[in-house]
Design brief:
The protein is α/β, with parallel strands linked by helices. It has 15 helices and twelve strands. The strands form two sheets. Strands 1-2-3-4-5-6-7-8-9 form a nine-stranded mixed beta sheet. It binds iron/sulfur cluster. Iron/sulfur cluster binds next to loops.
């Protein structure tokens, strides 16, 4: 179950700084599946077919399951299904109860505790859904949900009400109706395919959907939101990347939360997407005892850049029912942002957002850098805490106004 390769195994010197260890690339290894052929292991359909989905499988592969995890696993399939690909399972440290990978995919009994302020649809998506599977929350863009299935299931999933169908939501996207709505609304210039995970669809289905969307003249921009490069990098085949090339501009937003998720396999899969000309962004969810630590978060964001991925958002964990044990505080999120801006490459600094409960949309949250402001000046502080004044320009008029006679001459 240990990683196949590490800097230790390869004879490289140990890292002097712990962050260097976090930023090293490791393979997931084969673990329990050591006798599986390369062809099977690298086949995404084999990985899906051999997912861990039952309590019995989990106990077999994971004898160090805690009582809280065992109870959670027994109840999971009534709320959000248990599902972990063999590849991703190998990233779990079975000896560490607080392993950041383990906390994301192994159910816990705390998922059955719902606080008063928690909701089944915390972003109010169902309220903004004119057609099944389409969320039209913002003026010029839509969320196009194409499936309720994922390669593995994240225990804090915002869409756990519908994803995996464990709660009986019975989600059936109607592509014809979704596409007809987009075609009938010329204000929609941006379509984000999500789910569930769109990359679980076959190449043929994806190509069909992307072609139909590309044929709508006012759709300028296509995006896919996916966690597949993290859970199932084998799915990012050369054929898939070649197909995607027909649909530029097509962006892909991945979802990675911890540097250990960025393995050699994931890095190679992301390189295939980047080589196909696809701009890559990442969305991270701030999670307690997973990435609510400045050094872990910084190493993760820097490692994303090494994988050619621009960190896009850090999300405050939504108020999803049963997620309190995974939710870090906003205070911690702001503290992390404070220690990123100015302290590392600007490209590595994402926007920290709270999706306003009930459907208010994304609200950026940031440390305060503007200390005061009036008609004449702005007082700001930098990342070191030093204070500066900046003279304010007068709104509506240029700083250097041309003399009247020149203006008149130009009008002739
Ligand atoms: S991959 Fe995305 S949609 Fe699927 S369970 Fe995880 S967060 Fe939810």
């Amino acid at each position: 179950m240990k990683a196949e390769k590490s800097s230790k195994d390869s004879g490289e010197p140990p890292s002097a700084h712990p962050a260097q260890g976090l930023k090293s690339f490791f393979s997931s290894g084969r673990g329990f599946w050591h006798d599986v052929s390369d062809a099977d292991w690298n086949d995404w359909r084999w990985q899906l077919k051999h997912r861990i989905t039952t309590v019995e499988q989990l106990q077999k592969f994971f004898p160090t399951l805690t009582p809280e995890e065992l109870a959670g696993a027994k109840l999971a399939n009534h709320k959000l299904a248990l599902g972990i690909t063999p590849y991703f399972f190998n990233l779990i440290d079975p000896m560490d109860e607080n392993c950041p990978i383990r906390r994301q995919v192994i159910p816990r009994v705390e998922e059955t505790h719902t606080a008063n302020w928690e909701m089944s649809d915390p972003c109010g998506e169902d309220l903004h859904s004119p057609v099944t599977g389409l969320v039209h929350r913002y003026p010029d863009r839509v969320l196009f949900l194409v499936t309720d299935r994922c390669a593995s299931y994240c225990r804090y999933c915002t869409r756990s009400r519908l994803v995996s169908n464990a709660s009986g939501y019975d989600f059936h996207p109607e592509y014809d109706k979704q596409i007809a709505y987009i075609a009938a609304h010329p204000e929609i210039r941006d379509v984000l395919l999500s789910g569930g995970d769109p990359l679980l669809l076959s190449d043929e289905k994806l190509e069909n959907l992307l072609s139909r969307l590309r044929a709508i003249p006012h759709v300028e921009f296509l995006r896919i939101g996916t966690r597949i490069p993290i859970f199932l990098p084998q799915r990012i085949t050369p054929e898939l990347c070649a197909m995607f090339k027909q649909f530029h501009p097509l962006f892909v937003s991945i979802h990675s939360n911890h540097p250990r998720e960025l393995t050699t396999e994931t890095c190679e899969a992301l390189a295939r997407l980047a080589d196909a000309g696809i701009p890559l962004g990442n969305q991270t969810v701030l999670l307690k005892s997973v990435n609510d630590d400045v050094e872990v978060m910084k190493a993760h964001l820097q490692k994303l850049l090494m994988c050619r991925v621009k960190p896009y958002y850090i999300y405050q964990c939504d108020l999803i029912a049963g997620s309190a044990h995974l939710r870090a505080s906003v205070r911690k999120g702001i503290e992390i942002m404070e220690k990123l801006r100015g302290h590392t490459t600007g490209y590595a600094v994402p926007t920290y957002v709270i999706d306003a409960p009930g459907g208010g949309g994304k609200v950026p949250v940031s440390p305060e850098y503007v200390l005061s402001r009036n008609a004449d000046r702005v007082v700001i502080r930098n990342f070191e805490g030093k204070i500066f004044e900046y003279p304010e320009a007068t709104d509506g008029t240029p700083l250097f106004k041309a003399p009247k006679e020149i203006e008149a001459a130009e009008l002739v």
